[in-house]
Amino acid sequence: MPLYKLEEFDPNYRETFGGADVKSLELYTESGVLVGSIADALVDQDGRFRYLVISTNLDTIQKKILLPIGLSHINYPAKRVYVDGLSKEQVEHLPEYHDNLVLDEDYEEKVRHVFRPSTSDTIPGKESYSYQKEPDLYNLNDQYHQTFRLYEERLIANKQRVKTGEVAVGKHIETETTRVRVPVQKERVVIERVTPTVADTIVDPKEVKFQSGEVARIEVYEETPEIRKQAFVREEVRVKKVIEQETVEAQDTIRREELDIDTTGETTLRSS
């Protein structure tokens, strides 16, 4: 049966497992001895975990090995994976794993041989082998280490800025015809011919000076209007933005899983 690296089989495996990433965990024995870290996981064509790829760092041994998934107990909250009874001798006898290695039945059998109990009665043949025949090695969810995840939906409120419109403030020129009144003065010459108050008054000959060409000159002025245009500030317009706060409510139906427990007989349950 072909096996696939976790990310090759499901590029979005982190979302599939709710953000949990087995490749970020470390491997410990049940007694708390650090064995190494999880480098990858191998799944079958149905997506079932079959092996964990372990980068070992045990004393002087540093190599990658395959650990059948049934021998591990994954604890995501503690960010650890625990393994039962992995000894230094087993790590030494396990074949080394390489990323470009093509797994075949012979290689897997070498791995199984290291972990298979020496008291095992029968060894499945290559032609008839299936992972279900050795649940201790390949059954991740055995009866002592089953993990149920209860999911619930939540409403997540986020905000984003959306352009809803635009205000453009500009100016244009309007024309109109106006009139202005300017009072002006004009001078004119008034010639009056009047009769002497005393008619036929005799003038002293010595005062009489008859001469031609005598001219009296009077300058005449008038005011002309001088009209010109001048610009003044009529009004100032200030443009600014203000933020108004309001609360928007949304509602939806969310789901939550609850645990149902059925017991038979005199079974005692203890919750932790």
Describe the structure.
Strands 1, 2, 3, 4, 5, 6 and 7 form a seven-stranded mixed beta sheet that branches. The protein is 11% helix and 14% strand. Residues 141-147 have low confidence and may be disordered. The protein contains five helices and seven strands, in the order E-H-H-E-E-E-E-E-E-H-H-H. It has one domain (1-195, 233-260): Photosynthetic Reaction Center, Chain H, domain 2, CATH 3.90.50.10. It is rod-shaped and about 175 Å long. It has 272 residues and is an alpha+beta fold. Strand 4 and strand 5 form a beta hairpin.
Features:
seven-stranded mixed β-sheet; alpha+beta; 272 residues; Photosynthetic Reaction Center, Chain H, domain 2; 7 strands; 14% strand
Name of the level-1 CATH class: Alpha Beta
User: How many distinct beta strands?
Assistant: 7
Q: Order of helices and strands, N to C? A: EHHEEEEEEHHH
CATH topology: Photosynthetic Reaction Center, Chain H, domain 2
CATH-defined architecture: Alpha-Beta Complex
Number of contiguous helices = 5
Low-confidence parts? 141-147
The secondary-structure class comes to alpha+beta
Strand content: 5-15%
Shape descriptor reads rod-shaped
Sheet with most strands: 7 strands, mixed
Terminal Cα separation, in Å? 40 Å
Name of the CATH superfamily: Photosynthetic Reaction Center, subunit H, domain 2
Radius of gyration: 55 Å
Which helices and strands appear, and what pairs or packs with what?
Elements: E1 4-5, H1 6-9, H2 13-16, E2 26-29, E3 34-43, E4 49-56, E5 64-68, E6 72-75, E7 80-83, H3 88-93, H4 105-115, H5 135-138
Parallel strand pairs: 2-7
Antiparallel strand pairs: 1-3, 2-3, 3-4, 4-5, 6-7
